[in-house]
Fold this sequence. Notes:
TIM Barrel
Amino acid sequence: MISRRRALAGLGALPACAAPPLGAQEAPLRQVARARGHVFGTAVRADLLADDAALAALVAREAELLVPEWEGKWDALQPEEGRFEFAPLRAIIGFAQRHQQRVRGHALIWHAAMPPWLPAALAEGPRRAAAVMEAHLTAVLRETREAIRDWDVLNEVIANPEGSDNPSPTDGDLRPTPWLSALGPGYPERALRLARQLDPTLRLTLNDYGVEADTPHAEVKRQRLLRVVRGLVQRGAPLDAVGIQAHLQMRDPFRPEPFIAFLRALRELGLAVLVTELDVREPDALAPSLAERDAAVAEYAGRFLAAAIEGGVRSVLTWGLTDRDSWLVKEPAVARGDGAATRGLPYDEALQPKPLRAALARALGGG
Length: 367
Ligand code: 9MR
């Protein structure tokens, strides 16, 4: 069965019947977005694309841009020092090529998803840390040069304010990480310069979360991010874009004005802005019915998306397409305490579209 489907996939698009059909009036999200010069994309996992024909068909139909949920991280790419493992990432690139999709890369410098040897190597000091950074970026950017033209070079480098979910004790704007300890506050610039030198036309992106809401924490983080980015730009560091992860939390109020002002401030620095990891966590008290929950999620995300587009966002990626496969279900730290499954992605666990899909179509289709 799998080999037949793989054979079909190798010949061209997946059979359309594998994905739940769209209504007569509905066009694929990638097409709706493209008609307005926008791009819709999603995070994918190589194992799911290989094992789940219906999901693979949905991804092929809906998304123009893919980002690997895991396959571009250090623990995937360099599980042991010097041994690079590109097969899972290549599988995603191959899928994208068969379906006329592009791939963005995630993530070159991050404090998480580190293979066990990496923190130990970084702790050996700045020379060793610089050599490890150079070896990884050199091998990875050489491998992906043809297929990936936008990488999250810096992921989650901004410190979280006091009182937030995951505060970072810090005396600066950078999050305390093994990279910061090893190389000092110049490490983001070092990584950007290295990436630019290795591939002069690659788009270099800084990607972060917790900057969307109308809360004091988000405001502090927006200011920190702006200070870090301004410093980089002023020093002539090669940075091209800022990725707004948008792991939204409905318990936080959202107001367009401060978010749009933040996006505009970034764009005035000459940077592109994009939404890289959209999903929605429901509030602590759930609406009574599924229909009301789904409507509320779509309404909240719709307001966010309208503001993002107004602020200059052209590309939006969700962090997966279906509730079934979401990290919000799998990870105890973010799963709901009451056991209810999250409904924060455009398709439900039976791969049926929800109002969030319609909200994405409205925002990206300009209607
Ligand atoms: O969704 C991802 C999850 O499956 C992984 O276990 C985890 C660690 O690699 O990363 C999750 O994705 C994160 C992303 O890489 C960066 N922003 C936050 C995402 C959710 O934690």
